[in-house]
Amino acid sequence: MIHKIFRLLVSIILVMAATGLQAESPENDDAERVITTLQDGLIQTMRQGQKAGYNGRLKLIAPVIQQTHDLAAIIRSVLGAHWAKLDADQQQAITQAFQANSIATYADRFDQYDGEQFKVIEQIQLPRGRVLVRSQLVRVDGNPVNFDYVMNRTSEGWRIINIVVDGVSDLALKRAEYSAVLQKNGIAALIDMLKQKTARIEQGHQ
Fold first, then answer.
1. Nearby residues of 202 by Cβ (< 8 Å), 6 or more positions away
2. Distance between CA atoms of 34 and 120, rounded to whole angstroms?
3. What is the DSSP letter of 173?
4. Could you give the CA distance from residue 157 to residue 160 in angstroms, rounded to a whole number?
5. DSSP label at 153?
6. Model confidence at 179, in pLDDT bands (50, 70, 90)?
7. Cβ(113)–Cβ(41) under 8 Å?
8. Quick count: other Cβ atoms within 10 Å of Cβ 85?
9. Helices within 25-82 (DSSP H only)
């Protein structure tokens, strides 16, 4: 009987140890680390600035955005009920156009460094297993820009599905803009609009 109890205790200890190791594994990194990855990438891109040029910044930031954002989920959420009405080719085309425009916009806007620093403020649990990571971009003039990142856990880890800048939801802005184009001119016009936006960014850096 004593031996059975001893073996049971050993089994419990081993299970607890294994659970503890799993909790500290890289697969269970928290959402804040994803935001730190994004913000470190943005600072690096800003530091390169004009020296790297638009194409250089694009190469720097593209893998960071793909690693930290769930762009496919974002465009599905933006389109809402419209998404289900699209065929597979249309879904692929709008996703690719949206991804290209999102990355181009980052490379365009984060083009110079003036001593700014990001800092994570807090992480808040949201419904449906999501979290909100609150952070600030602290500028040298002392006026911070507030960035709230809504995060969803995917099979590849935590990913950004919305960004709220100083209280303004990027998802809500895109939903209003894209829905207006869809309802008036259809999916082909929306895809064309995104491609034109990306082309204008590229032309502005030639």
1. 54, 104
2. 11
3. H
4. 10
5. E
6. very high
7. no
8. 11
9. 31-68, 71-79
